[in-house]
Amino acid sequence: MKRSDELQALYERLLPEAIEAAGKAWCPHSDFPVGAALMTGNGEVVRGCNVENVSYGLTNCAERTALFSAISQGLAPGSFRAMLVYAPKVAVISPCGACRQVMLELLGRDCPVFCVGHDPQSARDWTVEQLLPGAFDSL
Q1: Which NCBIfam families does its entry note (predicted)?
Q2: Out of 44, 63, 105, 129, which one is annotated catalytic?
């Protein structure tokens, strides 16, 4: 699938940021680093990485780390332009259900989400709506 010039520019800007974020992941239990890069409305990037806990339910994914960090910095839900998720140990990554639900509320249905693994040719582009079709929300 060919990206528009605008989406390609977002992808190229976010990929190195997400790769760097994955390098900061705390994943001693799974050895599965993930990085996320979130483009703000003013062109800044907020990074997130997965942070594990031996009690897996307490683990936080890279996507939610980036989003929660952005919100804690005072950025408004729905003000983001795109997110890229990177995982070097798989050909392509896909957000978990919890991340998809948080993305729906904080990114918005039309926000692009790029998912990339060690094989850039396998990268997938979605919108949040495509990741969570028929979603229930209160917005």
Answers
A1: cyt_deam_tetra, PRK05578.1
A2: 63
Strands ordered across the beta sheet of 124-127: 45-49, 35-40, 80-86, 112-116, 124-127
Place of tokens 């140990």: 89
Question: Is 115's pLDDT higher than 90?
Answer: yes
Quick one: pLDDT at residue 1?
59
Note if the pTM is more than 0.70: yes
pLDDT in tens, 65-100: 999 999 999 999 999 999 999 999 999 999 999 999
Is 63 a residue of the active site?
A: yes
Binding residues for Zn(2+): 61, 96, 99
Binding residues for substrate are 50-56
pLDDT of residue 99: 97
**Strand (E) or helix (H) holding 68:** helix 62-72
Domain range summary for the chain, segments of one domain joined by +: 5-131
Distances (CA, A) of 29 to 48, 62, 92: 18, 15, 21
Buried b / exposed e over 70-93, threshold 16 CB at 10 Å, is beeeebeeeebbbbbbbbbeeebb
